[in-house]
From TrEMBL:
<dbReference type="GO" id="GO:0004347">
    <property type="term" value="F:glucose-6-phosphate isomerase activity"/>
</dbReference>
<dbReference type="InterPro" id="IPR001672">
    <property type="entry name" value="G6P_Isomerase"/>
</dbReference>
<dbReference type="Pfam" id="PF00342">
    <property type="entry name" value="PGI"/>
</dbReference>
<dbReference type="InterPro" id="IPR046348">
    <property type="entry name" value="SIS_dom_sf"/>
</dbReference>
<dbReference type="InterPro" id="IPR023096">
    <property type="entry name" value="G6P_Isomerase_C"/>
</dbReference>
<comment type="similarity">
    <text>Belongs to the GPI family.</text>
</comment>
<feature type="region of interest" description="Disordered">
    <location>
        <begin position="46"/>
        <end position="84"/>
    </location>
</feature>
<dbReference type="GO" id="GO:0051156">
    <property type="term" value="P:glucose 6-phosphate metabolic process"/>
</dbReference>
<comment type="pathway">
    <text>Carbohydrate degradation; glycolysis; D-glyceraldehyde 3-phosphate and glycerone phosphate from D-glucose: step 2/4.</text>
</comment>
<dbReference type="GO" id="GO:0005829">
    <property type="term" value="C:cytosol"/>
</dbReference>
<keyword id="KW-0413">Isomerase</keyword>
<dbReference type="InterPro" id="IPR035476">
    <property type="entry name" value="SIS_PGI_1"/>
</dbReference>
<protein>
    <recommendedName>
        <fullName>Glucose-6-phosphate isomerase</fullName>
        <ecNumber>5.3.1.9</ecNumber>
    </recommendedName>
</protein>
<dbReference type="GO" id="GO:0097367">
    <property type="term" value="F:carbohydrate derivative binding"/>
</dbReference>
<keyword id="KW-0324">Glycolysis</keyword>
<dbReference type="GO" id="GO:0006094">
    <property type="term" value="P:gluconeogenesis"/>
</dbReference>
<dbReference type="GO" id="GO:0006096">
    <property type="term" value="P:glycolytic process"/>
</dbReference>
Length: 756
């Protein structure tokens, strides 16, 4: 890049001012003479002091060296000619250093930058005395900077200000002129718009994008240093800058031999220590060598956790339930998830289970989440109701998965932290924790550790692909960049995940938390709000159920980019005698048809050709031009589930990196929790006295809270244990009731003796 001569001139001048000017010894003097105090307090780093020769740590090109040597050799003469070339970076670097120290004084904002300034010829071509130069330049530079400061443009750093972004904005206008139906006929384009890795086939040819769009998205990714940011994440840099934490869910599935350091410690070693602990423990439970307080086998597992401590593990559980190896290894065992604090969820989870055969796994990174901790106390009480209020009951029937920073809380709960505390770390985000003990323990208890290992291997395969594959072949990168394109440029506010596999019924809800808790933000790393769309609304449903639910809208309502996920082989295919299609082919026929229907639509002429009456035609036209992408994998196994998980984790990260937001914190969940505590205090006061009137933060809240208390006063459970079981207050019926009441012998369904 060629820099303007006058720009260079100003750089040299700035430097020489530092050296030569007597009074204003420092650039501070350039700004406000009283800054001198500042520099006395915070002397400029040597590299900014132009004492001949300057030793600076800033990387310096040969050119800069040459200029400075010339300057230092001529320190006393007036520079007669403008230096020939200066590296932009160096200048900014110096400015950066200088201004950040000044900015600190100026209230911390970083928007006090000295840009490259173009000097009018009268200044750039010195001919007159040095003094004149100094004064004129000082005023000029200072004037320019304070103007900048006055009407500073905080959005300047936003990605939307980059040329790459602006070019994409312009390109969008061209794309708006083209219909997907036509783009799809371009075989060269379609031939370039798919990618494959380790059995995963991604077809993104039904995106409203051309090959040029991909080039421009690649430019944007480069501009945003996407590859460097991915590397920073995977090598343990503390990229979660608001919590000052590394983001290392990839380390949870790294090979034992790999090394990733956080604060000087190789975290992979610790990861495998815990995986070994889980393997030993789950094999002990499954072999019966580890038993309950009364000596019974522990064959019921209740995993108590919410959010990331539940959605990921449940997604995987639903996959393995019908996975051939999973079916066999789960026989005789039962895994249930208790997430909601709704007492009905408690009863639905455990009423028919024998507590003596039940192991409670408390999954909570912080061990502070209100719902999880109340449910955990409830489960503890349930155990005590049946086996007596003995510490050993807790030590034998309750284990925990939590972050090391919660160790004391786990101990205080009465759990045997030497043997039954399965730790993970603060560098694992809750919604990224399914590969940690949070998923490994409940899943391995039901399906055996081997199957969980296959899940980790699938995720690892995508991690390696993500870290190494070039842009056009990199599946999570392409999906992420097209996500940015669809949301920030084509303005699609929502996105839907449509797995054509019933066993993936919990994937959309896992992606909802993964994506919306990660990118549901507007604040960028610059402390400036994004002036572009960030964070889609995700929803989804398995195919073909969704087709009979919200597909009307997808085809004729507001367009929603779709992800179709399908498998070449079913976990369990069926082909009834006399049927020409297997059930899986029936399913997959829709998987292939829907993306084309969305893309091509149906024109008025095509409708008319079907003999539809003129007045009905408008209601039958499909606009089409609705983007989707299709992921096709060989079969839904534990390995494939790991691949899918990592693909979506990395897609979310890519979008956050491009949008310059922190995808790894979730401060937005705190306010609601805080207000819930206030409400609980109001309720407690109201419940403890008959005439207490709640005064909440606003009249509407006061009214509805007092209404709730009044309406629930009579049968409030804390007042009297209405129709609870005699054995426990936690459930109305118990396993004893369930086991005692034989099922009714026969129902005479319309005289057919119960047979359909
Ligand atoms: O409230 C949101 C959240 O913090 C999620 O990020 C997290 O997955 C969930 O709650 C549960 O948190 P924990 O695992 O600490 O109980």
């Amino acid at each position: 890049m060629r820099i303007h001569t006058d720009t260079i001139a100003v750089t040299a001048v700035v430097c020489s001012i530092i050296v030569a000017s007597t009074e204003a010894w420092s650039p501070a003097g350039l700004f406000r003479l009283d800054r001198r105090q500042h520099l006395i307090k915070h002397p400029l780093p040597t590299r900014l002091q132009m004492a001949p020769p300057r030793q600076s740590s800033a990387p310096r090109s040969a050119k800069v060296e040459e200029i400075e040597n010339r300057e230092s050799s001529h320190s006393t003469d007036i520079p007669s000619e403008a230096p020939s070339f200066v590296h932009e970076g160096e200048l900014n670097y110096a400015e950066e250093e200088l201004l950040s120290s000044l900015a600190a004084e100026e209230g911390g904002g970083k928007n006090l930058k000295v840009p490259q300034i173009h000097l009018p010829p009268r200044l750039s071509n010195p001919g007159v005395g040095w003094e004149h130069h100094h004064r004129a330049t000082t005023q000029f530079v200072h004037g320019h900077l304070s103007r900048m400061k006055a009407n500073g443009d905080p959005t300047k750093y936003l990605v939307s200000n980059t040329d790459e972004w602006k070019i994409l904005d312009e390109h969008k206008e061209e794309i708006d002129e083209i219909h997907l139906r036509d783009l799809l006929q371009d075989s060269e384009r379609s031939g370039a718009m798919y990618a494959e890795h380790d059995g995963v086939y991604l077809d993104f040819s039904r995106q409203r994008a051309t090959l040029e769009t991909l080039d421009l998205l690649e430019d944007l990714a480069e501009k945003q240093e996407l590859t460097q940011k991915i590397k920073a994440m995977m090598t343990g840099e503390k990229i979660n800058f608001t919590e000052k934490r590394a983001v290392l869910h990839t380390a949870l599935r790294a090979d034992r031999t790999e090394k990733v350091y956080v604060d000087g410690k190789n975290v992979v070693e610790e990861v495998h220590e815990v995986l070994d602990q889980i393997k030993t423990f789950t094999e002990g439970v499954r072999s019966g060598s580890i038993r309950g307080y009364t000596g019974k086998r522990l064959r019921n597992i209740i995993s108590v956790g919410i959010g990331g401590s539940y959605l990921g593990p449940e997604f995987l559980h639903e996959v393995l339930k019908t996975e051939p190896e999973g079916i066999n290894s789960a026989l005789g065992y039962d895994l249930r998830f208790l997430a909601n604090v709704d007492p009905v969820d408690v009863e639905r989870t455990c009423a028919d289970l024998d507590p003596e055969e039940t192991l409670i796994v408390i999954v909570s990174k912080t061990f502070t989440t209100a719902e999880t901790m109340l449910n955990a106390r409830t489960m503890r009480q349930w155990l005590w109701d049946f086996m007596g209020n003995d510490k050993e009951v807790v030590r034998k029937h309750i284990v925990a998965c939590a972050s090391t920073s919660a160790t004391e809380k786990v101990k205080d709960f009465g759990i045997d932290t030497d043997k039954y505390f399965f730790r993970f770390w603060d560098w694992v985000g809750g919604r990224y924790s399914v590969c940690s003990a949070a998923g490994a323990l409940p899943i391995s208890l039901l399906y055996g550790f081997n199957l969980f290992e296959k899940f980790l291997k699938g995720a690892q395969s995508i991690d390696k692909h993500f870290a190494t594959a070039p842009f056009r072949e990199n599946i999570p990168m392409i999906m992420g960049m097209l996500g940015v394109w669809n949301h920030s440029f084509l303005n699609y506010k929502t996105r839907t995940t449509l797995p054509y596999a019933e066993a993936l019924l919990k994937l959309p809800s896992h992606i909802q938390q993964l994506d919306m808790e990660s990118n549901g933000k507007t604040m960028t790393k610059f402390g400036v709000e994004a002036n572009y769309n960030v964070g889609e609304i995700d929803f989804g449903e398995p195919g073909t159920n969704g087709q009979h639910s919200f597909f009307q809208l997808l085809h004729m309502g507001q367009p929603v980019p779709c992800d179709f996920i399908g498998f070449c082989q079913s976990q369990h295919d069926l082909c009834l005698d006399g049927e020409s299609f297997s059930s899986h082919d029936e399913l997959m026929a829709n998987f292939f048809a829907q993306p084309d229907a969305l893309a091509n639509g149906k024109t008025a002429d095509e409708v008319r050709a079907e003999g539809i009456s003129e007045e009905d035609i408008p209601h039958r036209v499909f606009k089409g031009n609705r983007p989707s992408m299709s992921l096709l994998l060989p079969k839904l196994t534990a390995y494939a589930a790991g691949q899918l998980l990592a693909i979506y984790e990395h897609r979310t990260a890519v979008q956050g990196f491009i949008w310059d937001i922190n995808s790894f914190d979730q401060w937005g969940v705190e306010l609601g929790k805080k207000l819930a505590i206030d409400v609980k205090n109001h309720l407690q006061e109201a419940r403890n006295s008959d005439d207490h009137v709640i005064e909440a933060s606003n009249p509407a809240s006061s009214r509805i809270l007092n209404y709730y208390v009044d309406q629930s006063r009579d049968d409030h459970v804390c007042r009297d244990a209405n129709n609870a079981s005699s054995l426990t207050r936690v459930t109305r019926k118990t396993h004893a009731d369930h086991s005692r009441l034989p099922p009714p012998v026969q129902h005479d369904l319309a005289g057919k003796g119960g047979r359909l």
